[in-house]
Amino acid sequence: MAIYDHNQLSVLLNGYEIKDWADGADTVKFAFAKDAGEMLIGADGGGVFVASTDRSGKLTLKVRQHSEDNKYLNRLRALQDGNIKAFVPLTLEIRDLLNEDLVSATKGYFTTRPEYTRGAGHNATTWTIVFERASVNLEKGVA
Questions:
Q1: Which InterPro entries would you find in this protein's record (predicted)?
Q2: CATH code for the domain in which residue 65 is found
Q3: Secondary structure (H, E, C), the chain
């Protein structure tokens, strides 16, 4: 049996901890932008594997509607929108403190502006950030 505790997940953007998560099983998602490579098959049926040098990735975060984290992320996004020269690209560190998984990335930029949705229920705010270079280390974890 495996063990996971979302309270044991640390997500740091430029050293600031994001922790006011919306409800759901996909509040933190990181994915590489490209596959590790591609198999190319010639006319004779022989193949060659071409490794990709692209190590970029995309982070998607879902945080609660009225949280301090939204304020922090929105301030950074507004700085990027208003004065990209003064904007310091984001660094990312995601650590599963229980299972020791680690995601790290550098040179991040906001790509999607957040939507504003309100109604009779809670509406999470989704943040999308792309990074130039990333790595993912998955461990066996606690069993």
A1: Phage_KPP10_Orf10
A2: 2.40.30
A3: CCCCCHHHEEEEECCEEECCECCCCCCEEEEECCCCEEEEECCCCCEEEEECCCCCEEEEEEECCCCHHHHHHHHHHHHHHHCCCCCCCEEEEEEECCCCCEEEEEEEEEEECCCCCCCCCCCCEEEEEEEEEEEEECCCCCC
52-79 residue pLDDT tens: 999 999 999 999 988 999 999 999 999 9
Phi, psi for 115 (deg, rounded to 5) = -85, 155
The arithmetic mean of pLDDT across residues 107-133, rounded, is 93
Total of domains in the chain: 1
Measured at the alpha carbon of residue 5, what is the angle toward residues 4 and 8, in degrees to the nearest 5? Answer: 120
Residue 83 confidence (pLDDT) above 90: yes
Task: Report CA Rg, the chain.
Answer: 18
Q: Please, which residues have CB within 8 angstroms of residue 53's CB and are 6 or more apart in sequence?
A: none
55 lies in some domain = yes
Tens of pLDDT, residues 20-46 = 999 999 999 999 999 999 999 999 999
